[in-house]
Each structure stands twice: as C-alpha cells, then as structure tokens.
Input
Amino acid sequence: MTVTLLSFSDDILQARPTVLMTNETSTWSIPLPLRRDGLFWSGHCEGMEVRCLEQRQDSDRVRDTIEVLIPGDNATLVTSFRTTTGRLRTAFVRSPLVSILPPRQPHSLQAQHPGQILVLSLDAAYCEQQARSALGLQTLELAARYAVPDPFIREVGNALHGDRRSGRPPGSAYLQSLAGVIAIHLARHYTSVAPVPTVCGGLPLHKLNRVQAFVTEHLGEAIRVEQLAAEAHLSPYHFARMFKQATGQPPHLYVLMKRIERAKELLAESELPLIDVAARVGFRTQGHFTGVFHRYTGATPRIYRLNARAPRPS
Output
C-alpha cells in the first residue's frame, strides 16, 4: 500500500505538487490543490485505489476501473452522459448522493462547487472475483447510477473523510477489508440483473413492492408514514424500521428522493412551468420545491433544466 500525506505552510502556497502512485497495472498522477488547514492522502490495496481530491474536472472520460465518487458535504459534481437511446443527460451529485460508474462507461465530470471528493477506483476483475466467491455470480455487469442515495457508501466515505481530517491514513489491512465489502455491495445492488437483497428483518418483497407502487402513484400528494404502513399491514413504528432494513433509507427520505427523481424527469423532458412541476411531485409551493431540490442536487430547478437541455460538444 502507498499512502502519501502532504502538509503545507503559507510560504509554499503557490506550488501545485503532484503525487505519483504506482502499482502493478497503472500509475496515477494526482494534482493536489493547496489548503492552509488540510491534509490530502491517497493509497491503494489489492483491487482498490483511494484518492481524496479537492476538485475534479474531466471530459470524455472512459476508465477501465469501477469508480465510486463520494462528494463531501460542500462539493457538487456535474456529470453528463448518454442514455442507451442516445439522449444526453446531466446529473448533479451532492451529499447524500454518490455516483457508481462501471468500467468503460463514457461520461464527463465537472466540479460545480469546490470541496473534498473521495474517489474509490476498484479493479473490475477483483470485483468479479469477489462477487463470484460471495454471491455465485459468473459475471459482473454493473448498471451506471450517476446520482443515487446509498447510505452504506456514504458511511464509508464519512469514515475515510474523517481519517483524512484527523491525519490518520487508513492502513492496508483496513483498506483491503473495505475493498472486499464494497465489491460485494456493488454486486448485490448495482448489477444489471441484481439478486434480490435479503435483509434479515426487512419487509417481504411483495409488501415492499406494494409500498413502492403506492409512493409512485401518489407522488403529487402528501404521503404519511401511516399510509405506507397501512399498505404493508404494519404499525407505523414497525413499518419504518423494516422499510429501512429493506431499502437502506427511512420512508420519508425514500419518498423525498422519488419526488426529486420525478422532478428531474419533468424538468428535462417537459415544458411544464416550475410551479406545476412542484405540484406534480408533491410540493405545496414553488419556493419549498426550489429549496429542497437545490439541497439534494446542488442546482435550482431552473438551472437544472437549462443544463439538461444545453447543447454539448459531440
């Protein structure tokens, strides 16, 4: 494992050092912006490289590794990609969202707001080996998720960001254990044909499907936990606990993220006024909608619509 720590004083703030990391298959050149109060680190173990960057801006990126991007609290990433039908889409990635990028997936990335960005680069062959050993999968084909809530990945990111801030770079054994767990997590939840997660104590699949269908059908309305619990024939307390075990999210956050996802679709694909978009996804006022949308995407609805429709170089 290679771990590099840099500490800067005021008299060298004009320099821009570069950290070189080499393993058996690749060499990384990582420009590190300077801060008066921070440390930056990078490291790797078998199957995974970890980098903490201040900002990131790439165009026409194609990587051979699986990349997991975890923005810090103040960072916002803008990623552009084409769907399977060839349509250009833009996603804003901001905490608590993360990006899961399969190998050889063309896309571009730009940092809209500066901040720490954690990049986990996993070797595809290593992940496939872990998935085969733990889950019996013969091949591993991940589906790209450019802006997705993932509490587990966020917790990993928070722990590593905490290590960076305290100046305690993770050891090789710690990183190695994380690499295996992350690989299996990605295989369970992001494969094109993913096995159904089986969480002890979670909602049975038929009840979960019923609740999710109810949310989809009533996005334009106020949705209470009591209503969702009634769909599952459970008390609100037990429903909330079992729903989180099954999805990784509490009910209110799940509903909110569904509202945001639907709003993105309406902003990108329709000419509806913003006030009508807000109403269709369950917000009583345009102001409330704008504030919540900005919090979770890093852009106002108007800016998101403009970016989603802006022509980009082919």
Notes: The two ends are 39 Å apart (CA to CA). Residues 153 and 182 are 8 Å apart (CA to CA). Residues 251-269 form the longest helix (19 residues). Residues 10-189 form a domain with the Jelly Rolls fold (CATH 2.60.120.10).
